[in-house]
Specification:
The complex is a heterodimer. By secondary structure, chain A is mainly α. Chain A has 6 helices and 2 strands, in the order αααββααα.
């Protein structure tokens, strides 16, 4: 039965696997940004890039927590949920909804951060943009999964 | 759960024509039942989704509000953030000897060289928060000589060259123009006190001249000509090359009798000065 289920949901499985892959890439980028944040806390300018300006700005922390760590936490949570969904098929709806909501919040927040970069800090950190794009891709992928859960395609004869 | 039910129901597209009419009726009922179940499930999912989205929006809005409230006061460059405003530079006590780019008694036992960039927020931070303390604790009493070495690191390019039209570079040139008139330190201080951060238009040629007006002893005409004619482009080129050759890769870096200390941490600088004063 689990094998048949797996094949019946092959398409969904592919999208669910994409979430795992994207979350892993997100973890890599957020880890790098976290490292940059702490390196730049050495109170120096190295002329590296705009990332320095962005990461040194007063907006790089939220209630004392670097936003890079918040991103890391979001990707880690997404990864955990995505793996749980692959392992426990019976939870697929609940987990998909939860993932969508988590990623929607992450998307809103990264949209706000990108707005800050463009119009307030006036410097764009390329890896922050990469992170925002990964969050957007994750949200789009989960959005399509939510849609397919609500309107399942009729099985072909 | 509902996923399971969904799997058990017969497919909507299954061809019905081959089956008998009784079975077709049964199929019809099952299909109606399945459709009702599916609609019920969809409503359930939609209500979860709606609740979740509302929670997400409220949570993010709360975070943004909290972030904005904490944001402003944490700014490193606490000074004026409007390029149209120019403020006077920090005052240097007249008892402190000024010799070109060196501050303090020439016979002081310890030489501190700061490699700095006028746009670098951490150099600004050191200037605003610690320079006065360094002056009163060590420079005034003749324990250290303090030399400033311009290093326009923010205008450095990936290939190791420097953008000679960059703000850090132009500011460094202007500082050397003021030095030509023996007014290096007052202008140097005025530059830092008017630094708005990286790439914020702090040091356009016009603003460099406006800042010079805060130093009344400067001959404005000669200063303006020096800035416009790029008199010190080569000087700054040499300063930058020297810094690179000395292995300096961030600003501010303080070289205290040959020992480098990076970053705007007064405690770390003080510690090395004390060690040098205590002797080997």
């Amino acid at each position: 039965m689990p094998v048949r289920r797996f094949f019946a949901h092959a398409d969904l499985r592919k999208s669910e696997t994409w979430t795992v892959v994207l979350a892993l890439v997100g973890i890599a980028v957020a880890s790098y940004l976290t490292a940059v944040h702490y390196r730049d806390s050495l109170l120096v300018c190295s002329g590296a890039s705009d990332c320095e300006t962005v990461q040194n700005s007063s907006y790089s922390k939220l209630l004392g927590i670097p936003v890079a760590i918040l991103g890391l936490a979001m990707y880690a949570a997404s990864l955990g949920l995505a793996i749980a969904r692959l392992a426990m098929v019976e939870l697929v709806e609940r987990v998909t909804m939860l993932l969508f909501v988590v990623l929607f919040a992450g998307f809103l927040f990264s949209a706000y951060l990108t707005w800050l970069e463009l119009f307030v800090i006036d410097a764009v950190c390329q890896w922050c943009v990469v992170s925002a794009l990964i969050t957007t891709l994750l949200l789009a992928n989960e959005g399509s999964l939510v849609y397919r859960l609500m309107y399942p395609e009729p099985t072909e004869p | 759960m509902s996923h399971e039910k969904q799997k058990k129901r017969p497919s909507r597209n299954r061809p019905a024509g081959t089956a008998g009419s009784r079975q077709a009726g049964a199929n019809n009922r099952t299909t109606r039942l399945a459709t009702a179940q599916k609609a019920q499930q969809r409503r359930q999912l939609l209500s979860w989704l709606g609740t979740g989205i509302v929670i997400a929006i409220v949570a993010v809005a709360t975070l943004i509000v909290l972030n904005n409230r904490g944001g402003e006061s944490k700014s490193v460059a606490g000074g004026p953030d409007n390029p149209a405003t120019v403020v006077a530079g920090q005052f240097i006590d007249s008892s402190i000897q000024q010799t070109g780019t060196v501050l303090g008694k020439p016979e002081a036992p310890i030489l501190v060289v700061e490699y700095g960039d006028y746009q670098c927020p951490f150099c600004v931070k050191f200037h605003r928060e610690s320079m006065e303390r360094l002056m009163s604790e060590y420079i005034q009493s003749g324990l250290i000589r303090f030399e400033f070495h311009e290093y326009p690191i923010i205008d450095s390019k990936d290939d190791g060259s420097f953008d000679t039209n960059g703000e850090s570079y132009r500011a460094a040139e202007a500082a050397r123009c003021a030095n030509d008139q023996g007014e290096y330190w007052p202008y140097h201080n005025a530059l830092y006190d008017n630094s708005l951060g990286e790439f914020k238009g702090s040091f356009t040629p016009d603003r460099l001249k406006q800042i010079a007006m805060q130093v009344p002893a400067l001959n404005q005409e000669a200063f303006g000509a020096c800035v416009d004619n790029r008199t010190h482009t080569a000087t700054v080129q040499h300063l930058a090359a020297d810094a690179v050759a000395a292995g300096i890769n961030s600003t501010p870096t303080f070289v205290i009798n040959g020992r480098p200390v990076t970053g705007a941490d007064y405690g770390a600088i003080k510690q090395v000065i004390e060690e040098q004063l205590a002797g080997p």
